[in-house]
Amino acid sequence: MKELAYLKGVTLSDEDFSRPSECDINLGSGCFFTILHNGKIIGSEGQPIAQSTMFSWVVADQIQKDSNSSCTQLHLIRVKNDSNMDSILLQFWQMEELPSLKSLLSEEEEFCEIQF
């Protein structure tokens, strides 16, 4: 895609993002900001924006609005399925995990918990 030359050398989470295909992962809006990393690449006016995420770089662009469509917004992320995906998702869930009560207790408090 020569019109996106400004993204040359960037590892995209979906190299064929401009070709419609099945969705590999669907994330809720509640975790959107937790997957973002620092880094954004902006091309010329009207070109897609690339954003760094924990899944590699994703590309976002405006949807051409069809005058007959009732859809006003659509949010989609497609992630390339690779061997590293399990570790990436594990990192994500570890970030979301609440600390266990045991890790917050001192030795004396743990002893009391066991005894009572």
The fraction of residues assigned to DSSP E strands is 5-15%
> Can you give the helix content as a percent range?
25-40%
The number of strands is: 3
**Termini Cα gap:** 66 Å
What is the makeup of the main sheet? Answer: 3 strands, antiparallel
Considering the chains and any ligands shown, give keywords for the structure.
15% strand; 116 residues; 25% helix
Report on this structure:
This is DUF1758 domain-containing protein. The chain has 116 residues and is α+β, with helices and mostly antiparallel strands. Helices cover 25% and strands 15% of the residues. The protein has 4 helices and 3 strands, in the order H-E-E-E-H-H-H. It has helices at 32-35, 85-96, 101-104, 107-115, and strands spanning 36-42, 49-53, 56-60. It has a 3-stranded antiparallel β-sheet. It starts with 31 loop residues before the first helix and ends with a helix. The relative contact order is 0.18. The model has no long low-confidence stretch (mean pLDDT 75).
Entry summary:
It comes from Nephila pilipes (Giant wood spider). This protein has 116 residues and is α+β, with helices and mostly antiparallel strands.
SSE inventory with pairings:
Layout: H1 32-35, E1 36-42, E2 49-53, E3 56-60, H2 85-96, H3 101-104, H4 107-115
Antiparallel strand pairs: 1-2, 2-3
